Amino acid sequence: MDISKKTDYALRMLAALVKDPSGVLSVRTAARENGVPYSFARSIQHDLAIAGIVENTRGATGGMRLAVNPRETTLLQLVEAVQGPVVLAGCLDPAGEGEPCPNRPSCHFSPIWCNAERLLRGFFSSVTLYDLVEKGLSPVFDGSFRLVDEAAARVAAQGEE
Description:
Largest sheet: 2 strands, antiparallel
Shape: elongated
Oligomer: single chain
Number of helices: 7
Structural class: mainly alpha
Helix content: 40-55%
Strand content: under 5%
Strand order of the largest sheet: 1-2
Distance between the termini: 19 Å
């Protein structure tokens, strides 16, 4: 999974919105202050509005403002709003139609990919926009890994389905 440039820019713009005391930020200002090409920032603003993350206001003092509560909005929600579901491999749903990969039952690696995806999704959902921007907090993985037999790994991987 790659975090796209679009997602990186969108997160920078959203961080600027969280920090802005007026709550409204012009796209031009957000672009300039965050190193985002203006035309790309406009496209991102449009996509964030469609996703319900920002609302747009018109006029001389117009711009965008957060439409979500940064204390309740997770990094996972933001990433998925911009670039779609966080997926490492197509084991569970390769075609986007709800059908798992036909090789999954005999694949030795499927439990690895499914568990890694679950870890990544859990990691991204463990922190809110407010935690990151206002409090300066970041999640830290301090768990440990253990090896289990193939059957136990499959059971653990299926826990996400």
